[in-house]
Amino acid sequence: MRHFLIAAMSASLIAPGALAQETPRWALVVHGGAGVIEREAMTPETDAAYRAAMARALATGEAVLESGGTAIDAVERIITEFEDDAMFNSGRGAVFTAAGRNELDSSIMDGRDLNAGAVAGVTSVRHPISLARAVMEHSPHVMLQGEGAETFAAEQGLEIVDPAFFFTERRWASLERELGRLGLPIPPRPEGAPEPEPVDEGALLRDSREHRFGTVGVVALDNAGHVAAGTSTGGTTAKRWGRVGDSPILGAGTYANDQSCGVSATGTGEYFIRLTVASRICALVEFEGMDLQAAADRVIQDELTAMGGDGGIIALTPGGEIAWSFNTPGMYRARQSAGGEPLIAIYGDEE
After folding, report:
1. Which of 25, 34, 144, 255 lies 20 to 30 A from 232 at CA?
2. Nearest to residue 135, comparing CAs of 114, 157, 116, 109?
3. pLDDT tens digits, residue range 26-59?
4. Each residue of 155-186: pLDDT tens digit?
5. How far apart are the C-alpha atoms of 108 and 117, rounded to whole Å?
6. Cα(85)–Cα(68) distance, rounded to whole angstroms?
């Protein structure tokens, strides 16, 4: 099993006891899913496309935070862009359920006051992360699901789209392949979907290997020293019976607390839920005094791996310490701190 420390932290990423003025004005870390992501299975063009998407995410977050925006603002803004990017398993480009639907889950959490919002199983809201934030800020609840969540979205004036908006041929072909493997019937092609078109076999292979549990996520630190985290996903290909994974579950797939850290996860959700991965990492930092990377590795490399779970996390403290840890061959990931250069990585042997 592998783990990857963000080595050689710059002086702007402070250690405990460092002077307060050394804390970065802002910092960001993002992920686009983890899985069997290997160089030999990736074309140069696809590799470049994913790195460009990670670079855009950092640039978007930098623009928000440099202008004085909050960590919550940065998280939402970046994830809405991911949700519109068909390369990722969230929003447009999400995987299909066994019934041939895109069912979207998302959550967001503010480390200032532990306020949070989450949604599960939405099918017509263009940006589930914005709906999660609306639940947090404009409802008395933490989580809404299905039809009720969509009714609330309409009442809040969020953008509602035809479910066919989320359709991509690549994900539909992946569904057909997975249902065939499982011996399950293939549902009718969704109403409003475009005419069938060829799909690159390499993309289907990547889907079967890396996007079985793909997700996108962001953790941000703003100029005021507050952290926030958010996660958004289409779940797992051919999921059944209204399955919900860890992404909308606070403490499992997303957590943020100014007393410890912010975390966004990606992986086999059932294990992340059982282990409460995100809040567990934060608790190790807050209550056992562990540094962030050590806490992340203990949960991912030791505890999650021992359970048979796979996936990874990104994390960030109010002091600017950034970490990621994953026990899969790769994870789309990137980080940047104020005044520093961006770091973008995909494969397990990268820094």
Report:
1. 25
2. 116
3. 999 999 998 878 888 888 999 999 999 999 999 9
4. 999 999 999 999 999 999 999 999 999 999 99
5. 6
6. 26
Task: Indicate which residue of 23, 123, 215, 233 is catalytic.
Answer: 215
On the question of pLDDT at 209 being above 60, the answer is no
- Residue 97: per-residue pLDDT: 97
CA atoms within 13 A on the CB side of 301: 13
Residues 233, 251: Cα–Cα separation, whole Å: 16
DSSP-derived 3-state class of residue 344: strand
Residues in the chain: 351
Separation in Å, CA 99 to CA 175, 179, 237, 250: 10, 10, 10, 27
For residue 203, give every residue at least 6 positions away whose Cβ sits within 8 Å of its Cβ, in sequence order, or none. 46, 170
Give the pLDDT of residue 207: 60
**Which DSSP category does 41 fall into?**
G
* Integer Cα distance of 159 and 284 in angstroms: 39
User: Which residue would you say has higher pLDDT here, 15 or 277?
Assistant: 277
For position 35, what pLDDT does the model report?
84
Cβ contacts of 29 within 8 Å, gap of 6 or more: 218, 219, 314, 315, 316, 322, 324, 333, 334, 335
Instruction: Give catalytic status of residue 215 as yes or no.
Output: yes
First CA to last CA distance, the chain: 16
Task: Decide if 64 contacts 209 (C-beta within 8 A).
Answer: no
Max distance between CA atoms of the chain, in angstroms, equals 62
Single out the residue of 257, 235, 262 nearest to residue 248, CA to CA. Answer: 235
Task: Look up residue 83 and give its two tokens.
Answer: 């949700």
Q: What is the pLDDT of residue 274?
A: 98
Sheet containing 343-347, strands listed edge to edge, beginning at the edge strand earlier in sequence: 143-145, 115-122, 104-110, 227-233, 216-221, 27-35, 330-337, 343-347
Dihedral (C-alpha) 60, 61, 64, 68: value to the nearest 10 degrees? -160
Task: Read off the DSSP letter of residue 255.
Answer: E
- Residue 173 vs residues 100, 198, 200, 267, 288: alpha-carbon distances, Å: 11, 9, 10, 22, 47
Radius of gyration of the chain (CA): 19
For residue 96, give both structure tokens. Answer: 């299909």
Cβ proximity of 307 and 271 under 8 Å: yes
Mean pLDDT score, 307-319: 97
Residue 348 has pLDDT above 80, yes or no: yes
